[in-house]
Structures are given as structure tokens and as C-alpha cells.
Specification:
This protein has 9 helices and 11 strands. It has 275 residues and is an alpha/beta fold. The protein has one domain (2-10, 17-274): Class I glutamine amidotransferase (GATase) domain (Rossmann fold, 3-Layer(aba) Sandwich), CATH 3.40.50.
Length: 275
């Protein structure tokens, strides 16, 4: 069924003269392991996914969704807050309506395909890749080998790569033995990997200051690693703006956004590079 959906999506793209295929990668997990054995239910942030998706579709692009296993992703219910849409209730409802139409989070009807299937289809079939935030990329995407291979291909071919908020941590998946390296980071070791394709790149992500201000989301728990700390340790040139203000950083093929407020601007910056 998913192969049929994929074929339909690719065929639809051909109807637009300048259309491209945007691959959106999300976690298929719904819980984040915290310190001291605590666990938090979470998922992707609604506006961080849907505002960019709406932007891509409005520009005539086909959006293809993928998770590591092909299982449906989960939304963080705490992100269903109009404040993340700048107080625009109409925009919030439009985002939620499109998500419902897509059936992305449906366990039986989700169009999400696996990263292994993306590889079979061919990375060259996609013109851009986007990873939204929410806390959940901290659970698996930062050390997923298949995602690392995909991002490495996009890096090697200088193809548009967009990420926002906690999603930027997914760039660590390109490090050789990312799983071992992340384990060191989570244990408090701040050592630089011997190799990282994004070393020296300017980028941003949810900042330590924003993490402190948003710690209520963790219900008293503590994260094992903050995105800013992990990226800086790996060799990123981190660009931080005022908390909760839109901040988009571009460096070569890479476009990153600091927080939920930056999501739509990341998508718009991606569109400019895709022209």
C-alpha cells in the first residue's frame, strides 16, 4: 500500500513544471528517555511539522514522509497550543485539518515509509530533506544509521537540508559510530568526534536558555543531552538568538531554525534554495 502511495506522490510531482519532492523525516518513537530512568511522552511539534509542510505544498512540491521503521509518527499533544502559531487560531485549525487529512499519525493508514524504502527509491529522487523538532529526535534520530547515510548523501551533493529546533540534533547521525558518540555525550563527556561532515558549519537549534525556560514540558524530569551542547561538542559553529525569536541560519546546503517560531521561515528559506 505504501509503495502505491509513494508512486502516486512522485507522479503528482510531475504535474508541476518546477515541482520537487521534499522528504520529511520524523521519529517513529513516542517516548523520550530522561535521566534517572524517567520517561516522557512526546513526539513532533505540530506547528514545526505542519507550517513547513503547508508551505511546501502551497509552492507546488510533493511531500513524502519517512520514519526510521516506516511506523506512524506521534504528535506531542503539548504542542497543540495556539501560541505556537503566533496566536492565530485559524492557522492552527488549518494545520490540524491538513494533518488529519494526511492521516500521518494513523497506525493503519499513515503514508510514512521507512528510511530503508527511501534508499531503495533513491536519494536522488528527492530535492530537499526536512527534519522538524519536538523533543523526540533526541530519542533516536541523532544516532540513526540510515538517516546518517541519507544526510551524508545530501551533504555530498549539496542538496537542500533543513532542520528546526530539536530536529537539528539529527545531524549527529552522520558521525561514524553515532550511537557510541551519543552515549558519550549523554554520559557527560564533551569530546569531539574524529570525523563529522558538518564540523565548522554555522547552525542553530533549541538553545540551552530555551531548554531552561521550557523545562516544565519535562514534568520534573531532566534531559540527558541538550541539542546545543551536543552540536557544539561535535564541532558546530552555533548561532544563538534571543529566546523564542525566529532565527534561521544558512550555511552552504544547510538551513537550521532555532525554535518553533522559526519553522515556517526555515521552509521559506529552503524554497529559495530549491529554485
Amino acid at each position: 500500500m505504501k509503495k502505491i502511495i509513494m508512486a502516486g506522490l512522485l507522479a503528482a510531482a510531475a504535474s508541476f513544471a518546477n515541482a520537487g519532492n521534499v522528504l520529511v523525516v520524523l521519529s517513529d518513537q513516542d517516548k523520550l528517555d530522561l535521566k534517572d530512568g524517567k520517561v516522557m511522552e512526546t513526539g513532533f511539534f505540530l506547528n514545526e511539522l505542519m507550517e513547513p509542510v503547508q508551505t511546501f505544498i502551497a509552492a507546488g512540491h510533493t511531500v513524502v514522509f519517512a520514519t526510521p521503521s516506516g511506523r506512524a509518527p506521534s504528535a506531542d499533544q503539548k504542542s497543540d497550543d495556539v501560541n505556537f502559531w503566533g496566536g492565530n487560531e485559524k492557522a492552527r485549525q488549518e494545520s490540524k485539518a491538513l494533518l488529519a487529512t494526511l492521516k500521518l499519525t494513523s497506525n493503519s493508514g499513515s503514508p510514512a515509509i521507512s528510511l530503508a524504502e527511501v534508499k531503495k527509491i533513491g536519494y536522488d529522487k528527492f530535492d530537499a530533506v526536512f527534519v522538524p523538532g519536538g523533543h523526540i529526535p533526541m530519542q533516536d534520530l541523532l544516532k540513526d544509521k540510515d538517516l546518517g547515510a541519507l544526510l551524508t548523501h545530501f551533504h555530498d551533493h549539496q542538496k537542500v537540508t533543513g532542520l528546526t529546533c530539536h530536529g537539528t540534533i539529527a545531524l549527529l547521525s552522520t558521525i561514524p559510530d553515532a550511537k557510541g558518540y551519543v552515549a558519550k555525550l549523554e554520559a557527560g563527556q564533551r569530546v569531539q568526534p574524529s570525523q563529522w561532515i558538518y564540523k565548522g558549519y554555522k547552525m542553530t537549534a533549541f538553545t540551552n536558555e530555551e531548554e531552561e525556560q521550557a523545562k516544565g514540558f519535562l514534568n520534573g524530569g531532566q534531559m540527558k543531552l541538550f541539542p546545543q551542547d551536543g552540536l557544539v561538542a561535535a564541532g558546530a559553529s552555533f548561532v544563538e538568538a534571543k529566546p523564542w525569536s525566529a532565527n534561521v541560519v544558512e550555511d552552504r546546503e544547510l538551513i537550521s531554525g532555532q525554535n518553533p517560531q522559526s519553522a515556517k521561515a526555515v521552509a521559506e528559506a529552503m524554497l529559495k534554495k530549491m529554485r
